[in-house]
Amino acid sequence: MIKPILASTLSLILVFSIVQQSYASVDTSADQPSTSVVGDCSKIPMSQLRGVAFIDPILSRDERGKTFSGSPTNYVQKSMEYLKFYKFNLVRVPYYWESYVYSPTDFMNRLRLIAQSAQNNGICVVFDNHHYFASSFWTQDKPALVNRKGFPSFVVEDYPAADTYELTAGPFWTDFLNNNIPVNGRKVWDVQAAFLIQVIKKVNGFSSVAGYEILNEPHLFDMSQYAKLGAYHTYIAKKMRTVTDKPIFFSRENTFGFPRDPNSESKIVPQGVTKLVYSPHLYAVPTPGSQGEKQINNFKTWATQWRVQVMIGEFSAATQADANAFLKAFKSKGFAWTYWRWTSEVVSPSGTSLGNVVYDSDTTQPTRYLNILVKARDTVY
Fold first, then answer.
1. Domain ranges for the chain
2. What is the CATH number of domain 38-380?
């Protein structure tokens, strides 16, 4: 495999050869046809999009500026070149409200850089309003609640840290889903919607932007909250629709203290809003007769009933067989997908932790799981 090379090296090669690939600083062989996107990503069917969750160190900051280290200075641009080289055409980009609070300028500039770099390389982008166990605010009092982030302190500061996430965040999520948290005289849904509108206005003009996700994995603590989550999705989606006609993505819930109820899933769908994409996550391998297969079938049935498309926002595979099973299932149902996760945080060939990291760069070798994913994609599609 011929890897992307530095622009300076490419310039030297141009002296001796008039036959070069047309896109910046990437050299690929003729037998690797491009699957990059040309045109408006917001109009491309989900069945044609496949890629990775792209983790960015700026957008991943918490409210105190903490993030992962080790990213090269040209991480965004080079990653997009590599993703094109590996024939991916979609990235789901998690961003954290806390990062915006820490540095609005850095945050907004990074959104634009990602949208522009993706556009330069024919890659579509879904911007994902992300949280991971709600907020970093509570880690100051309870170090056990580590690596959590999402909602800024001014949203969660009235909810004291307890010994467990459930005891800490349960009251917060109850009030949040009831839109019962005041922020400087405004309701929290309106404050969050204003933030999301700023995000949309910054990047909506880029053809690479395929859409926007309302909120990653909302947390529910009792059955009554399904309908409340639907009300929240509807309210925010309608606010977003005032500034964009691109698809709006809504994520599946996580539940605490009770199992998910498939019969209640329809309650979370935004109402009165068009161009919707359901974006559940799936970590159970969809082998025949498995729970993973059952979920895949549910996703397809629900999408047909709701008249929406589907993007699997997260999945990962530990083996080649698992990766093949995931992609065969996704292809058979016409789903887009983004593998969790592409990041420079871990650059060892084996990858690590949840998501079995996929990554490659000018100074590293491709991780084992990147090779597995690429082979599965090339086998299945």
1. 1-33, 38-380
2. 3.20.20.80
